[in-house]
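Can anyone check this?
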Amino acid sequence: MSILGYSLPGTTAELPVAADWSLTSGDGISIRLSDVSDEQTTVLFFWATWCPYCKALMPHLQSMRLEYGDDVRILAISIFEDGDPVAFINDAGYDFTVLLNGDDIAKAYGITGTPGVLIVDGDRRVHFDLRRISPPPRPTTNEALSNRQKQRTWHPTGRRKFGKASILLPL
């Protein structure tokens, strides 16, 4: 199965189901996850106006919204908030549904920091969870030192070469 172009291993029966909930939007409308996800693929974006990583992620979420149109809806769930999330989203021109006071929802999903991103289908099955992405493996200290030594070359004139730059060293 594929959701938003992301291929999924196995069957959807193996995927966790997102708990249902209801929050109030910035427009004062009550939004229930099950109602929204029944209609379209839903991105749950847990964020805060003060979060630099959230701000960096927003243009990418907007491009997803532009690419998939009405097939996807982004619920921007404000958490740990001390600013004005509705004004922030409106001023930035993002096409997200802003939901307020999502701290309890974040806690129920085990989201303890920002940003948090889940993508759910019509059955509320979680196809993507940003927290489950593994960082690339980091080299050990010995590997890093070995790679650094390979990058250095010595010139017979006593110039130590670093890429294009060279430094004259005393002999």
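Reply from J.R.: I decoded it. The two ends are 65 Å apart (CA to CA).
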